[in-house]
Every structure is written in structure tokens, then in C-alpha cells.
Amino acid sequence: IPVSHCFGELKASLLRNESIRCWSNIPFITVPLSRAHGKSFAHRSELKHAKRIVVKLGSAVVTRGDECGLALGRLASIVEQVSMLQNQGREMMIVTSGAVAFGKQRLRHEILLSQSVRQALHSGQSQLKDMAIPVLEARACAAAGQSGLMALYEAMFTQYSICAAQILVTNLDFHDEQKRRNLNGTLHELLRMNIVPIINTNDAVVPPPEPNSDLQGVNVISVKDNDSLAARLAVEMKTDLLIVLSDVEGLFDSPPGSDDAKLIDIFYPGDQQSVTFGTKSRVGMGGMEAKVKAALWALQGGTSVVIANGTHPKISGHVITDIVEGKKVGTFFSEVKPAGPTVEQQAEMARAGGRTLAALQPEQRAEIIYRLADLLTDQREEILLANKKDLEEAENKGRLALPLLKRLSLSTSKLNSLAIGLRQIAASSQDSVGRVIRRTRIAKDLDLEQVTVPIGVLLVIFESRPDCLPQVSALAIASGNGLLLKGGKEAAHSNQILHHLTQEALSIHGVRDAVQLVNTREEVEDLCRLDKLIDLIIPRGSSQLVRNIQKAAKGIPVMGHSEGICHVYVDTDASVEKVTRIIRDSKCEYPAACNALETLLIHRDLLRTPLFDQIIDMLRVEQVKIHAGPKFASYLTFSPSEVKSLRTEYGDLECCIEVVDSVKEAVEHIHKYGSSHTDVIITENEKTAEFFLQHVDSACVFWNASTRFSDGYRFGLGAEVGISTSRIHARGPVGIEGLLTTKWLLRGDNHVVSDFSEHGSMKYLHESLPLPQRNAS
Prior knowledge:
Elements: H1 3-15, E1 52-57, H2 59-62, H3 72-86, E2 91-96, H4 99-122, H5 138-158, E3 163-169, H6 177-192, E4 195-201, H7 223-236, E5 241-246, E6 266-267, H8 288-300, E7 304-309, H9 319-324, E8 331-333, H10 343-359, H11 362-378, H12 380-397, H13 402-408, H14 412-428, E9 436-443, E10 446-454, E11 457-462, H15 468-479, E12 482-487, H16 492-506, E13 515-517, H17 524-527, E14 536-540, H18 543-552, E15 566-570, H19 576-588, E16 597-603, H20 610-621, E17 625-628, H21 630-634, E18 654-660, H22 663-673, E19 678-682, H23 686-695, E20 700-703, E21 722-724, E22 732-734, E23 740-747, E24 767-768
Helix pairs in contact: 4-5, 7-8, 11-14, 11-15, 11-16, 12-16, 14-15, 19-20
């Protein structure tokens, strides 16, 4: 749309006292954007405060794979992201390539059309296939493509009610002080009027570049010019953030594609010596070295820089917004080097430490756990003092609900229970790693064994509960796994001292690095992307945390449960003495626990009986709020509040009561509305109980016992890393066995498969062999 029309809209909007940002159909998001320029952001998490942002689009991002024409879908996605950020109140600028490629497409079309007409007139149709396209000069392509490129941007931004303006510059413009001031003033005025400036080098008049051998039919203007242009503009305009999009994920420590290449998450000035630059991208004359030089120049000028991939189909649709949100995308340039290792380095240390741990003798691993148990009681005062700091900070800030404060709190009795649990783990872990679980004689002198081995590196993310740290650490040590721990900031002091004691215990056998505590500002979502470094994620926390992790973890298995909707079914043959005791314990002993009762199913024949009255009276005395299920409500004249959903985890002194007609209907209800966690039947009828036990498909199914028994410590596992409701190798409370996998060992003597062919000299036996005796201790 014409610029004059945009000004008219601007004036009308001001007269109506409306915000310019409300023009777009993208929701407005309020972000605190005020920031004094002069120093770049130190951490990715601060990028959300960036107000003025330059997005540099490299030739490889804007052009198609055949370098003839634009990648329209990719460009539309970039425009959408820029529009979204613009309508959040940010000031967006684009430095773009693409004029040459767009012009090449137009000129090729014109030449082909012209040649086809001439040849049709003079030579006949038979020679059309012999037409050759001449080499097109880059400046001519740019001249033909600039207007079309800008028209395309204008059309796309119009969809979001945003105006765009074109600015063409050359390097010479920056050497003339007056032109520099004019450029600066123009850009500021455009930003003030909520217009997105689109800047490009004036490729129609710049000196010709060096020939580029890997391009077909055209020399593309050097990408390095646009990198330098973007960096210069970013500093001149006091920009908060420069996003450089290319066709690689970011900066690697060696050329991308080489076997040992690793993406550098954060790059610091002075790290150039540790990087080997490879060849440049498929288009453009620059390369990663040019981008790094431009990025460091901008960083010195106070502008933060991120180099990322703008061409990958899975991420290009949200790469810009992800960067601004502080997600771990591409390479972030920072002047502030952290004191400790990066999370990637910690994961590598945990893997190396875990392998050393797995190679220790079982008695040595047990010694480490016994030592940790002793330290929990010996250093009790220091632990409780650190925990007191966490509790005081949480109460002062008022950010934790009462159930979470209870989880955060440590006590002498909790530490004693922890130490007892750890000693149980040490005692039961003697033959967990390397245990032979199957032996088969494949043929004469060819024996096969299946043995238990650690999974690898575990990432355990937990909220509020610092007692989780030594429990999980002990299980990882016993199973020979490396461990990354990510605790909530509300338990920072407690986690710090508990991790210090864990490393002290590990040090007695030189495996201190096997357990790592992530203290950097890593977002959980970023940790879940480390699929090459982490083998299993175990979340311990709220159902929302678990769901978020399950959603974010792509390529890494997640073991856990998102909800604990536990049922207790009271059958017609239930014992009066057992019912109220089991229900009270299941609901009231610790209502915030994932294994607490949430739905009480009662057989219809028990309504209006003394037993039913006793249940209701007990719940009232315990101040449990009752929600009526649809069928239960239909039996009552004046019912409690009807439940909004039968699939609700209350996590408090609340529960749902529903009526069923039979044990079969109870099982069907549990399958429809439960979460496969823990479900209970109360009955004296053994046949009914066995039907329930066999047919309920949950991780834990109990008869005449509280749901609260669903716990690793109470199962005799010593502790648990969590309760799994998924259909993998471990279900229910997960102890040492759930943290092991297996490998196959085949011992032969010059055996080859061809010996077992139809005319071969050997035959398969496949005989089962006895297993070695387990350690009696």
C-alpha cells in the first residue's frame, strides 16, 4: 500500500487515541522494552528485553535452492515473525539480500521469451531446445530485481497492516559524514512512525565482485557486504540485537558436516583461535568467518548478536521469535564468560564420569552411597541452615503455595529417613550393573549373554523438593549412570549443599564429575533439546511441568507421569473397619502427593447405608471438599457442587465421589478417566478383588491398601526417581532396575555365519544355559 496511505492511517489512529500497535491482526503482547544502550546483553534470557532489532537475511535464506528466484514460503514466514515482534512494541529493521536472484529469474524469463519468438520466426520450432541462456551480469540482475523484491515485501507486510520502506546504500555512503547523518535520520523517522525499514546494498552500482565458481550463470554480490552492512547499521542505530540468518545452524568449532563438528552455543571474543572456518554457503561471497568478524564488531559496539539457521524447514517458521524469547537457537555472542562449564560440557563430564562409575566394583559404588548417607546426618546442621534460607526467601516473595512450601521444607526426621533409604539402595545394588539375565549357547564354543548396563546420562528435573537430589543421585550411582540435575530456583541453597555433599562422596573413588547440578540460566526447554548428550529425561514435579517436558523433549525419551488421578473403589462386600481408614489415609495423609486419592467410586447399593454415612462424616471431619459426579448428583436432592471434569487431579483436600453399578463399571470408569497411576479396591470378596487386580490397566493396582503405598521407599526400593505411567520397561515407582538397560555379549572362536549355511559345517543349538548365582547379600 502507498506510504501516503500509511501516514493517513497513522494520523487517523492518533486522532482516535488508539495505539499504532493495534493495527495488526497479531495479538499485542506487552514486554518491558526500555533499556539504556551501550552494553550488550550478557545472557540469552535477557534478549526478550530487546527493543530495537536488526534481522539480516543472507542470500541462502532469501533465495531458492536453484539460486534463481526467491524462497517465497520462507520469506513469508520471516515477515510474519517480524510483524509479530513489531506489534509487540519493538522496532524492527531488515537487511536483506535477494535482489540479484529475483532479477536473474525475471531476466531469464525475458531472454527465453525473446529468444523463443525470434527462433520461431526464423528457424522454426525444432531448434527451440538448443537455446542457451547467456551469463547474466550481477548488477543488471540487481537492477531488474530490486523493485520486485521490495514490492514483494510490501505485499507481505500489508497482510499484517504494517508499512515497509526501502533504503538502498553502498559502502561509500558510510564514508560521507553528511550521508551517514541523513541515513541515520531517515531510519529514526521511519521507526518513529512504526514503519519497517528494509535495507539492501545498491547492487546495481557497486563494483563487480570476484567471480564465484560454484554459481551457475551469475555472480552474486558478496554476502560479506551485507554482513558488514548489518553490523554497521546495528551499531550506528544503537540496536539491542542483531540476528544473522544463514543456511547453517550457527558457528561450529570445525567446518559443519565434519565428523567432530559441534555447534557453539555461546561465542566469546578471543575464541577465534579455537574455530576452524570451512567453505562459504552455496550463495554469496562471504562465509562464516565474515559473519563472525561482523558479529564481533557489532558486539564491541554494544549490540548483542545471534547467528542462526533461517532455512531449516522445522525451525525457520519460528527461529526469529525463538531467539528473542531467549531460547537456545544458533550461536549467541556474549562478552560475559561464565565461571563454570556450560551445560553441554557438564553433560559430557557426566557421561565420562558415569562410564568410570559403571566400571567400578559394586562394593565401591555401594561405599559411595553409604558415605553420602553418613554425610546427610553428619552435616545436618549445614543442610537445615541452607534450607532455612530457601524457606525464608520463598515466604518473603510469596511465590509458593502452602503444599509446595511443605515439599521445600527439610527436617531432621526427613534427613534421617533419607539416610535410611540410601543405605537400602547401597545394600540392594551389589549386583545391579553387569548382572547376567540370559545365557544361550548359539553353537559349539559360541555363547551369548545378555547383561544389564546403565542407560547413560539421565536428566532429572525437579521442583521444590531438595530431598529428591540425594535420592536420585544414589540411584544413579548404584546403576552406574551419569546424572544431570536441574532443580527449581526456590531450592537453590539446599540443592547447592546437597550436591556438594554428593560430589564429596563420589570423590572417594575419583568419580566426582558423574553427578552434575545445572546452575546456569538454562531453560528446561533448551535442556530437552540436547538429544546427543542426554539419554533419558525424568521430570519430578507438577503435572504441568511434566506435560511441558513431554512436549519439549524431541528425540529424548521421557519417563514419568503427567497426572496422578488415583481411584478407590468401595465394593458392596467392603469391610466397615477398613473403608474409612484406607480412604482417610489415601486422601488426607498428604493430599498434594501424586499418589493421593482423587476420585472415590462407591457401589450403588451402598448409598444411604451406615457405611456411606460414615465415609461422608469422616471426609467432613477432615475438611475434604466433595465434588459430586453426574450419577452421584442424580441420587441427591441437594448435592455438593457437581464436578467440572471426572479427569481432575485436585492435589488438595478435595475429591470427587461417583457411583458405579458393579466392579466392571468401576474398571471401565478408571480406564476412561484415570491416569494409569494407582487404583485401589476395598472388598472382602476375593473373586471380585482378583477381577479388579487383573483387569485394571494401571502401573499400581492394590487390594485393601492405601494409594499412598505407591512409593519407591515403601516398596523397598530405597528411593525412586519417579513414578512412571508410560508403557516402557519401567512402570510404577522406578528404582535401580528402571535405570538399567541391557547389552549382548557374544564369545566365539573363529565363528562365521557362512559355516551355518545349508552346506556348512556347523548347526545352531540355541540352548538355554543356567544363570550365574546372584550375590546372596
